[in-house]
Design a protein that fits this description.
Blueprint lengths: L13 H14 L3 H13 L5 H15 L2 H16 L16 H23 L6 H31 L1
Length: 158
């Protein structure tokens, strides 16, 4: 009788779970969220971002996650070009505002990619580089918490 070797299945790395969660969050970004992300990102230009990106590139090379980063970039480019509508949808059939949403996604693409790199490399980036790349997303989370807190305060008064 032939015995089949069972190879132990290695669990997926934790960063893939984090990227999956990030991907779901990106899909749910509103137009206002995209504007906020881009605004925070533009305001932080030059504040160590170049060195953080260089650190991320080095971390990609040493961690062996280059292909995952390429897949992330490819997925984000597809996300920026299509907002859930078939690509074959003719311009006159598109809902009003679709072009605006696609433009906002294209403009937010660099910042969303940098945040994705921070998520992918969180365990190997320096804390400073992580904070720099992840900063716009943190601002988005803080804004959402402030809006939720304001809604709760408004509900108590009425």
């Amino acid at each position: 009788m032939r015995r089949w070797l069972k190879r132990p299945q290695t669990p997926e790395p934790a960063y893939l779970d984090e990227l999956a969660d990030f991907s779901g969050d990106v899909d749910r970004l509103s137009e206002g969220d995209l504007l906020l992300l881009r605004g925070v990102w533009e305001g932080a230009v030059g504040e160590g971002r170049e060195s953080a990106l260089a650190g991320a590139e080095a971390a990609l090379a040493t961690s062996g996650r280059t292909q995952v980063a390429e897949d992330l970039k490819f997925g984000l480019v597809r996300w920026s070009e299509n907002s859930g509508h078939p690509i074959s949808t003719r311009a006159y059939l598109q809902p009003p505002g679709l072009a605006i949403e696609i433009d906002l996604r294209r403009r937010a693409l660099p910042v969303v990619y940098e945040v994705g790199l921070a998520v992918l490399l969180a365990d190997v980036l320096s804390p400073e580089a992580f904070d720099t790349l992840y900063g716009p997303w943190r601002a988005l989370s803080e804004d959402a918490e402030a809006r939720a807190g304001g809604a709760e305060d408004g509900g108590e008064e009425g």
